[in-house]
Amino acid sequence: MAAAPGTVHVRDSKNLRGPRLAFAPSAWAGFVSFASASGA
Q1: Rounded CA gap, 32 and 28, in Å?
Q2: pLDDT digit of tens for each residue in the chain (40 aa)?
Q3: 3-state DSSP call for residue 24?
Q4: Where is the DUF397 domain (predicted)?
């Protein structure tokens, strides 16, 4: 995970050249909140 102005970038740490996903900070915060609440 890497934060950039207005964007959070996520990638597979085992595949450094693989695709990256970009999320708005609010979307990433929602995902983290959901994952924490559901025990994921």
Answers
A1: 6
A2: 666 788 999 999 999 899 999 999 999 999 999 999 987 6
A3: coil
A4: 2-34
